[in-house]
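Dig into these lines:

——
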Amino acid sequence: MVRLGNFFFHYRNFLFPVFYASLFIPSSVIFDSYPVSFFIGLGVILLGQSLRALTIGLAYIVRGGKNRRVYAEDLVTEGIFGHCRNPLYLGNILMLLGMGLVANSLLYLSIMFPFFVFIYQTIVLAEENYLRNKFGEAYDRYKKDVNRWAPNLKGLRKTLTGMRFKWKRVVLKEYNTTYFWITGAALLAAAKTGAFESMNRFLPALAAIAGLFVIYIYLKFLKKTKRLVSD
């Protein structure tokens, strides 16, 4: 499983767009009422995004590895990492679950989403193997005290009040993720509600998507020119 996790980690930037695209494959529905599916899905997405934002704002950890291999300079145990060992991955899982609900796709939630969770599980096992080899007993103690997936809410209030939330870091690190899920959700909703079949609906949907793109480019510009830097 560790070798498989290293494989998925190496190629994950190529795999995840496949999951994103699979949301648009025609499928049987989960809910007969699309608004129900949409708003439940949106709530789950926002929960995942909030978890990611809270994690990054308090204590950021580099998850991109080095040369597309598992890598860590430090063992980060503060912030939300003191309550869950993989809060960023858990946030991603919640967001992909929510996107499946927004798509109202039985195919996605019964096949693609479980496979997505399996991939993350193997990646986590590969990362745990790396961290154990590098940090030894310190990682063993951390692993014993903090759950892999299920967040432990004990002491969370102390964590939130005892650390400074760095919102600029959240914007800089999360604008890509936020843009893609909002755009994806907007496209799915437009497709499911027939917005592309009527000019009166199509133009407002197109304007909203174009507006999101302009905001995305502006944030990218601020980051590139260092007009917005992490505090």
Observations:
- The mean pLDDT is 90.
